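User: Please fill in residues for this 66-position structure.
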């Protein structure tokens, strides 16, 4: 397998895995955040992270990064 293809794939996977980490980092800060008192806030944040990952994968597949 060509090294360029492997590096392109690994970079794409890293970018996709960065999205839920970014959301979790923002919601881990000790500042007032939207929905922090909502009983289903955790599920909404997890759902938003999952949605971002799915959209990122779809975008990368459309642009043939995978």
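Assistant: Residues filled in for all 66 positions:
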């Amino acid at each position: 397998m060509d090294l360029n293809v492997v590096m392109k794939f690994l970079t794409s996977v890293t970018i996709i895995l960065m999205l839920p980490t970014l959301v979790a980092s923002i919601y881990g800060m000790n500042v007032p955040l939207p929905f922090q008192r909502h009983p289903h806030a955790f599920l909404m944040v997890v759902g938003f992270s999952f949605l971002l990952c799915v959209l990122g994968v779809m975008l990368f597949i459309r642009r043939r990064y995978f």
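For context: The radius of gyration is 15 Å.
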